[in-house]
Amino acid sequence: MLSARKAATVWLFLAFELVLTAQIPLLSHVPVSFYPGVENDLGQWDLDQAPAVNATGHLVFETANSLLQHWANTRYRIGHTIVPGTIPVGTLLYHGAITGPHLPTSLDWVAVEPEHSLIFCRGPIETGCWHLTLAVTQPMKVLYFDGNSAAKLPEGTMDTQDLVAWSEMKPEWVNNEEQRIMDLCKWGEKYGVNGFVRMQMNFEVMICDFTSHMEVVSFLNLESTRIEIGPGKDLPDDLDTGERACLCFDIGLIYSRTSVHHVYEGMHSASWRENYPGETRIELDFSGLISFYDTALVPSLVPRRVGLERWDHRVGGISSGDIERVQDRLAQALVRPPVTTSGIDWKTVLRVVVDRYASRLEMMQYLSNMTLDDRSVFDQAQQVQRRLRTVLLPYTVFAARPSNTNTGNATNSWAEPVFRECATSHTASIVAHGTTLTPSEHLLLQAVRETTHEICRVVTKMWASGLIVGVDPFYPPEQRPRADRIHTLMGEWKEDVTRLISWLDWSVWVKCRPACGIEEMCYLPTWPVGFFPTPSHEDDASPFQDSASLWPDPKKGEWKRPQPKCIRRLEPYGF
């Protein structure tokens, strides 16, 4: 038995040595200075220098990382990004025929899921309804507006569309969808754009020409979905409070238990695209991305965001000069040949950063938030320190060591090389070849750099503090530090990681806690679901004479700041 163990040990040692010798690096060490201009480009590597108050790199990062993801764009409804894209050949699109067995011939809407389009498949029970399935036959050029851009509200959800269609915001035309699609398509015709992608309870496409880029797969006379349309009176008595919710669509008030079930399934189908990779049937061209958080492109919005939370950010108030610059940049992106871009997969570049840090920062916040007594605080601090070291391990250059004279009040400048290597690891090679980037790609590059710079600054600062205090298992002190000093360290860590997570504001951290059960779904309040008719509709007047009275105040409560909650997947529903 002993000889067998020895043989196994020798075999593992030789195998490990073989792996090490096989992994011959291109250079034994490639410092950051290998890439000209990288080392000093973001200023001093000061562990105590936080980002500027009006910095927007992290906002560009998170909005770009969240494109075509239902969850993030439901949370922040006011879109700030416009991106060209393509719907690839073979993609199926769906259309519920409101007017009966008539194929659309020009301007109209399609859904990416049949559960969504079937809501609009209207017809009496006796004759059923007509539902159209289309297939894309050649790549379809589209333009995507992020946020909850199909929510017909005057609070800013349609601002970016208005700027493209009319060069100004027209909140009084919020329900004038016919004019909007006509003018968007007229604008897009000169650029070969045949569709505009928006998000409502699910993603939809405004199609400019049904006779182009698509063919009919089927046009079926289906059994009626029995979604009832009307003024919301005389609802069945057996509906509970949640089911009595009148769901306001362009076609009227939808009610009854069967109706609510169909609408729930429409939302359920949207949940398949909630998070990364999002809606994959639309391929975005990040090299043509336009962001209203681009302070060089849209400087007029910078002072309008001062002191505001992200919930309150609007495109409204943009100057006429900035509108012209946005339109010029968008036109350039739509006519630019694909060969002029870098070929960088920006969607993956962004996501790799999120994957690398999101769960680890979340765990650090959890550990630092625990209430601990003097006996357990040291072990807990070591748990956090291990995770900090794990994050920084690929960047912990051997020379980065504190001197013996270093104290807790020192600047921790010895750790700056680790900070620098961590912050530049995702972008150094791109920076070195930056001449091939489009203006949009330069924006994305800077967004990644600013975001990783702050992540690495905070994590390196926390790690260095833990090492100095004496809670790093790799460098145990001769004497265990005092409990009060560790408590102070844990308090500083808690403040640091909480501030960082708040600054990053990644939607990946927004989830139902505790997790929902098998009969539940995690849900963010979603337009247009879950709103109730008001007493003003008890008279004989049409409920759409004053549609605003249907809605809660968009400046208050969960509408403005949607919070996740578990809702039932089975009847009775409760939105």
Helix proportion: 25-40%
Number of helices: 15
Shape: globular
Total strands: the figure is 15
Question: How much is the average pLDDT?
Answer: 84
Please give the alpha-carbon distance between the first and last residues.
Answer: 64 Å
**Alpha-carbon Rg, integer:** 28 Å
Q: Which percent range describes the beta-strand content?
A: 5-15%
**How would a crystallographer describe the biggest sheet?**
7 strands, mixed
Stretches with pLDDT under 50, minimum 5 residues: 12-39, 229-255, 531-551
**Category by helix and strand content:** alpha+beta
SSE sequence, one letter per element: HHHEEEHEEHHEEEEEEHEEHHHHHHHEHE
Could you walk me through the main structural features you see in this protein, from its secondary elements to its overall organization?
The structure is a single chain. 35% of the residues lie in helices and 13% in strands. 39% of the residues are buried. With 575 residues, the protein is α+β, with helices and mostly antiparallel strands. A hairpin with a 2-residue loop joins strand 10 (247-249) and strand 11 (252-255). It is globular. The strands form four sheets. Strands 1, 3, 5, 6, 7, 12 and 13 form a seven-stranded mixed sheet that branches. Strands 2-4-8 form a three-stranded antiparallel sheet. Strands 9-11-10 form a three-stranded antiparallel sheet, covered by helices on one side. The termini are far apart. It has 15 helices and 15 strands. Helix 9 packs antiparallel against helix 10 and helix 13 (439-469) packs antiparallel against helix 14 (483-504).
